């Protein structure tokens, strides 16, 4: 499962960063600034010498909230003393993983947007190319304690995104994360698991076989050195990577208090797209999503197509517009509809009173009545015109949404009347049998 | 059940409008303009004389889409000839209803925003005062073919809005409408049913007892004369009244093709507030709501409080902020949390290595360890400090949302550590038992 990659940086640089990944906490912006100003190797020397470069100290003094450099240096020093980067590299590589650092061909440059809190390096384990996999990627995140609804939808999104050529990025946790990864794997696509522990640690342990499949088809990555176990802090800091790697994040299920909302916050602060999935208002696991929607921080996303529409190239990845079902009555022109409305269901009415009720001329009424009779909407009785029995029968059983009135003006009225068979639409507002509208 | 009201207009004016309500279709803007320019009585005379005022004809010629005045006049004339306004007023009043017209004390002036398509008059049946009832009102609309979820939520909204002193306005139909009205009645509040037929017609017939209760507690209203039956056109035009009477409209359930969306469109065009209720993306009856949310036409509303927050007086009717449950760990200060994270679950670690792992000074680590031990988070063993057994036990069973990490920075860290009993939060990210972070 091991995979070689173009190493553009000298081994010394790699070892220096491996050492600093031990010295600093993940997302340590102070270390980030030290490296960006003086390089990894000089940073290592400075820490070992317990003296930070004076220019660095001067610059830090101008920071908004200057930090206690002495204590930080002490912490770095103590950890560096205990660190063994060569052993780390050996351990990682023997486990089949590789350490990539900024400047490497596989480095996902979108992480540079994280500034000084950009990872010092990333341990990558798997057959896919991380950078390539994340070019078109979506983060699917949500509660570990997902409901069956949440797990189902997460898997659907995993499949849907993958089938459209998008990579699913998530945290490999229970619930939404795992379901999304599994959906992506089922669709035969690479998927990216971002861990809050070393890539050689299987956390949660129940996901061992999942992670094995991911390493085959995608990658498991982490900014933690081998052997490091997860902590709360690392989970929260890990979330910034999930948001930063992908073009957009969709929150599938989240309680009001949820780590997924932390990822959402990172996505927004990185100006990435944010989608939220609606659910029943009776479900506490959707309350976080609904708050994101209510506060207009997230776009309402109801399918993977919706999400692709959001993150995709404008016009290139548009979600298919949902269309309302057309019903036969749409195909009647306006005066004919008015005449049909004026025909009683019981008894009968003459063309003249129907014309008055419909507000059309007698000629118009006569021709419309002819057409409606031909199409089987109405029938002539000794008492005059009335709706056909089967129509009245239909009216007793309203049930489908298709029976409701169109929200928009009626479609092209030039069509011809339909056959009587597909008729349920007359159902709409299933009125009582009625007489013409004149008062008695 | 009959109710007298201050009639400020002469009977002749009332009879004239009653006659014109027969002559014109509901929402007939042409008739509206004729009346606004020449008054109802002159309009009646003009129609009877089959000659429209020349100024009116001249003005109409300048309309964007001038209408065929001759055919309209013919229709009005024919219907007026068949009309008997005195009989209408008698029939309505004997049934217990009253006809109110613009200028009456009970007239809801917010309808004037409808311009020329404002109703010519309104038949009102019930003990409540229409104008007063609608001062603080919300339209609760949705599918007739509501799901159990939709009906449940509609009833909840009916109760919630009423208990907060808001009147529910709806169409009295099956499904969402009926459930909302029933919820309002259950809360002992007036509610307003806007019919698309005469107030003496019970449509749908199964709602006879509902309408009877509404007339006791609220009002049933219609712009149709007595005896008039519903038609598709009247339902769509009726919807503008529901939107115009209320301060805002909430769509509880709506398929992509739904009359409720037609009401939503009216609400938007009248610049009233629009809310939509989320539901499962797997439910076709929520697709219309989700589209409104996705297109940002509606605000996501998950409770009657949310809706009141939307339509209410700024700052006066704010919805209570949902709070995340606070968990014990929140009450630990930052260094103490870091130390707790660095204490292994199995084996044990000395203060020095814990201090290095946590990135705090030895003194800070020692005091934090003391506090954590006192609070029962950790215990001292021959091998050093480790998490208390019960804690480790907790870690095996992750299930509740409250166990997830906070989306926001931790609360006030000055609090004292809590008792060990309420401890589930240590569950968050339930890690494997782990050793300190130094490599072996």
Automatic annotation (TrEMBL), chains A, B:
Q: What are the boundaries of the region Disordered?
A: 391-440
Give the residues annotated as coiled coil. Answer: none
Q: Basic and acidic residues composition bias: which ranges?
A: 427-440
Biased region (Pro residues) positions are 404-421
Q: Which Pfam families match?
A: DNA_processg_A (PF02481)
Question: Any idea where the Smf/DprA SLOG domain is?
Answer: 99-310
Q: Which PANTHER family match?
A: PROTEIN SMF (PTHR43022:SF1)
Give the UniProt family note: Belongs to the DprA/Smf family.
The protein here is known as DNA-processing protein DprA
Whose protein is this, by species?
Answer: Nonomuraea antimicrobica
